[in-house]
Amino acid sequence: MSKVILGTQTMGESYVFEKHYGWYLLSIKSNAYRLAEENLTRQGFGVFSPKHNSTKKKGSRFLNHLQPLFPGYLFAEVSKNSPDVRRLNNTRGVNKIISFTNRYYPLKKSLIENLRLQCDANDVFAHEFSFKTGDRVKIEHGPFTSFFGKIISVKSSLRVQVLLNFLSTSAKTEISTSNISLISG
Predict the structure, then answer these.
(1) How far is Cα of residue 11 from the mean position of the Cα atoms in its chain?
(2) Are strands 103-104 and 15-18 parallel, antiparallel or unpaired?
(3) Region 125-130: what's the mean pLDDT?
(4) Cα–Cα separations (whole angstroms), residue 102 to 25, 75, 108, 146
(5) Is residue 29 predicted with pLDDT exceeding 60?
(6) Residue 51: which of 70, 30, 32 has the closest Cα?
(7) Residue 37, SS3?
(8) Homologous superfamily, domain 3-117
(9) d(C-alpha 63, C-alpha 126), whole Å
(10) Which fold has domain 136-182?
(11) Terminal CA-CA length for the chain
């Protein structure tokens, strides 16, 4: 493992790159996911950018589209066949490698492996939660997108009955667990 010191930051801080192979977390410039992914792939880095399905209301229509699971970030793999880790910071679309010191270390391999196990072949995150009666949830897909409710009964691991409160009225609806997310607190 050899160390390469690159230039200096402010007040004598220097970035130290060690030849570590593995996955790194990158901060991406605004609206530059595709640009960063294309340039990283073209350079020979592995790229992993998990996404999730989201529904947005536009006018009177509901539009489904994929959004990054971690907005503003993606993972890049440095392998023996890819360029040196220094190239990550100089890639178009990439803001910087995330680090809490002046040294860059790869993420634990098990973190990426576990994330990948939760994603399909297109890197779309497929979460499964075990919801229970009384949980507060947000509806993420369908005609009730962005509504909040409370689970009043669990039909199965795939369907729940939710009590929605809107316009001083309560309404019950049965919904797929893939269309809701748990609200903490």
Answers:
(1) 34
(2) parallel
(3) 71
(4) 15, 19, 18, 41
(5) yes
(6) 70
(7) helix
(8) NusG, N-terminal domain (3.30.70.940)
(9) 19
(10) SH3 type barrels. (2.30.30)
(11) 45
Structure-token match 């209301």, residue found:
57
Q: Which two tokens stand for residue 40?
A: 């990283």
- The residues of the chain that CATH labels 3.30.70.940 are 3-117
Average confidence (pLDDT) over 36-44 = 94
Q: Please state, in angstroms and rounded to a whole number, the distance separating the CA atoms of residues 33 and 119.
A: 18
d(CA 96, CA 24): 10
The token pair at 148 is 């909040």
Average pLDDT, the chain: 82
Distance of CA 3 to the CA centre of its chain: 31
Residue 146 tokens, joined = 């962005």
Radius of gyration (Cα) for the chain, nearest Å? Answer: 21
Q: How many CB atoms lie within 10 A of CB 1?
A: 5
pTM (global) more than 0.70: no
Would you state the structure tokens that stand for residue 18, as one six-digit string? 């060690």
Q: Where in the chain is the domain with CATH 2.30.30.30?
A: 136-182
Contact 138, 146 (CB under 8 A): yes
